[in-house]
Every structure is written in C-alpha cells, then in structure tokens.
Amino acid sequence: MTHVRRWIVLGLVTAIAACSTAPTRKPARPRPDVSLSRIQASGDGREIVMYSLGLLGVGYQFGGSNPDAGLDCSGMAAFIYKNAVGVTLPHNAAEIASRTREIDRGALKAGDLVFFNTMNRRYSHMGIYIGDNKFVHAPRTNSVIRVDSLDNSYFAARYDGARAVLN
Question: How many C-beta neighbours within 10 Å does residue 91 have?
C-alpha cells in the first residue's frame, strides 16, 4: 500500500506542477529609434545624455522619482542628475528653474535643461537637452519617456527657456 500511496502523491505533485505557469517576465521597454550620430557630448554632459537615453520607454508616473515605479518630468531630471553626476535637484520643475542658471537657447549643451509652459504657468514642464535640437522628457500620464525636438510645433510654441546646472 505504501508504494501505491507514493505513486499517488507523485502523480498529484506532477499534475500540480504541470498546471502552474512560468513566472511572467516584465516586457522589455521599447527602444525608440534615436540617431546618436549627430549628438555630441563630453564629460558630465555625456553622462547625463547616456542616463537620459537609458530611461527611454520608462512609464510616466505623476510624482514618480524612480524608474521602477515611473517618473514625471522633474523626477526624471532629478534621478538622472543624481545618478549621472551626483547633483541633487528638487522634484519640481519651477523649483529646479529657480535654482539653476539661465542660458540662451543658442548656448544649449548636452545635459542642460529646457523648460516649457504647458499648463498656463511658467516652468510647468521640463526636459534634458541631448543635442541636435532634441530633448528627453516624461511628457504625461499614459505615456513613456521619449525624445522630442525643440522644433516640434507644440513644444516650440510653449518653450520657456533653457537653464544650466553645470558650469
């Protein structure tokens, strides 16, 4: 009888194992096609650009401050600056603007910050300039971190200036 009992237990364990599913893997983030051939950066600017591009496809989360949970625009900038170059920024676009140095658009370098008036108030949105008139940002709910052009009609109409964190 003990042999029969072992076979029954073994059969039940096998049946249960066969019904289980493999753990689900988080799908890979889509990597948008971003041509880096015209983007030039060195030193800290290059580190900031590389961190920025590494976050492409991360989901937007209002108030988000880490890539696993999602990021908003200022959370993205704060995360990148802290991890790329060790600079702590506040988690608010207007506050970041108030603590950084204004620069002309023509003087933009990779790693500088660009600001937009998207909610009828100054500095309500921001991104990180990566060169070639492009910037990385976390645009809105139900979207992902992506690259856009400063020439995009939506952003061009709402451009609110550029600011530098680094010298």
Answer: 18
What CATH number is given to the structural domain containing 63? 3.90.1720.10
Q: How far is CA 106 from the centre of its chain?
A: 25
Q: Which two tokens stand for residue 15?
A: 């049946």
The pLDDT value given to residue 133: 97
Q: Does residue 86 form part of some domain?
A: yes
Tell me which of 89 and 9 has the higher pLDDT.
Answer: 89
Rg of the chain over all Cα atoms, to the nearest angstrom: 23
Q: Which SS3 state, helix, strand or coil, does residue 144 take?
A: strand
Alpha-carbon gap, residue 111 to 67, rounded angstroms: 19
The whole-model pTM stands at 0.78
Q: Tell me the sheet residues that pair with 114.
A: 127, 162
Structural domain count of the chain: 1
Chain center to CA of 59: 8
Tell me if residue 164 falls in helix, strand or coil.
strand
